[in-house]
Specification:
With 316 residues, the protein is of the alpha/beta class. It has 2 domains: 172 residues, Rossmann fold (3-Layer(aba) Sandwich); 127 residues, 6-phosphogluconate dehydrogenase C-terminal fold. The protein has 14 helices and 9 strands. The chain has a 6-stranded parallel sheet, sandwiched between helices. Strands 7-8-9 form a 3-stranded mixed sheet, covered by helices on one side. α8 crosses α12. The longest helix has 28 residues. The chain is elongated. Bound molecules: NADP nicotinamide-adenine-dinucleotide phosphate (NAP). The site of NADP nicotinamide-adenine-dinucleotide phosphate has 26 residues, from α2 and β7.
Length: 316
């Protein structure tokens, strides 16, 4: 896989990188940073003793700490990789122990709420460049991570107003080094874009799988047996981590409700087309949506493989 990730850097971008939360995303960043020599030293912080032991066993970090104070001491980059709702408390606990010049970043799937929760706890002289790697799987924990997770995927940076451009550039260099394409936008625009591209689709998947599970006229065994008819692909999304997704909906409420409003209107229009036998309307919509999928494949964000490209993206 190293050939796919390109050659390692001759000099690290940051001397000491601390990663807080060694789940899917945190452990993937650690693996990729190590593979690409983007960090001189990688320090892991995780509350779970079992996770700390596993992280050392996997060799994805040089040290694993239970104490946030010990973990962030002398760090040049600290990346928060915990559920969206946990960022504020983590920032409050680590804030006083950050050295001047340190840059704090995160990977949360929601940005405005994370900026509001974290920024007040960062001392003067510490930079803040929030990030969201738009890459993931439905799996969690340190064993689920892999170095090529971010390869060819987008990472969105949402620096708050007044952020130091040098800090933004350095975080950008880091994400590019571990394989990502980088785009910069405001936190609120990020939240609106992700509401329609990620959050509402997940809600629809959770809803349809929940509805099927509650049906009385169709048995559970029939739902599983005939799942290849389309349902199966929703079940993959609906298997995503409950804590992570609970936090996303609680912290991106306005944008999700706005997009759901539009979705409901369009669904009502579709309902009408079916009721009135408007085949042309249905055909026209399905033709447009097919073109969108072709565009995603052409831009390298998906493969045409029927497993949705997951196996290939994971490099497994
Ligand atoms: P994960 O595999 O479940 O890992 C979550 C990590 O956060 C674990 O190390 C966990 O610690 C720690 N944690 C949980 N609750 C905490 C708390 N209250 N305080 C401190 N640490 C806590 O999750 P993940 O998929 O890596 O997601 C982490 C972040 O990445 C989330 O903010 C999510 O929005 C974002 N993200 C996820 C994806 C995706 O597809 N999964 C994609 C892009 C961004 P323990 O080991 O002690 O449980």
């Amino acid at each position: 896989m190293s050939d796919r990730m390109g050659p390692a850097l001759s000099e690290p971008i940051f001397n000491r990188v601390t990663i807080i939360g060694l789940g899917l995303i945190g452990s993937s960043i650690a693996r990729a940073a190590r593979r690409m020599n983007a960090a001189g030293e990688i320090v892991a912080a995780d509350a779970s003793e079992a996770v700390r032991a596993r992280v050392l066993e996997l060799g994805v970090a040089d040290r694993a700490e239970a104490s946030l104070a010990d973990a962030v001491k002398d760090a040049d980059l600290v990346v928060l990789c915990v559920p969206v709702g946990a960022n504020g408390a983590v920032a409050e606990a680590m804030g006083p122990h950050l050295k001047p010049g340190c840059i704090v970043s995160d990977v949360g799937s929601v940005k405005s709420a994370v900026v509001a929760a974290v920024a007040p706890h960062l001392p003067a002289g510490v930079g803040f460049v929030p990030a969201h790697p738009v890459a993931g799987t439905e799996h969690s924990g340190p064993d689920a991570g892999f170095a090529a997770l971010f390869l060819g995927r987008w990472c969105i940076l949402t620096p708050p107003e007044g952020a130091d451009p040098e800090h933004v550039a350095k975080v950008q260099t880091f994400w590019r080094a571990i394989g990502s394409n980088v785009e910069v936008m405001t936190p609120s625009h990020h939240d609106l874009v992700l509401a329609i591209t990620s959050h509402v689709p997940h809600l629809i998947a959770y809803n349809i799988v929940g509805t099927a599970a509650d049906l009385e006229e169709v048995t559970q065994s029939e739902v599983i047996k005939f799942s290849a008819g389309g349902f199966r692909d929703f079940t993959r999304i609906a298997a995503s981590d409950p804590t992570m997704w609970r936090d996303i909906f609680l912290h991106n409420k306005d944008a999700v409700l706005e997009m759901l409003g539009r979705f409901n209107e369009d669904l009502a229009a579709l309902q009408r087309m079916i009721r009135w036998g408007d085949g042309d309307g249905l055909f026209e919509l399905f033709t447009r949506t097919r073109a969108i999928r072709r565009g995603i494949i052409e831009q390298g964000q998906e493969t045409a493989a029927p497993d949705f490209g997951r196996r290939d993206a994971a490099g497994q």
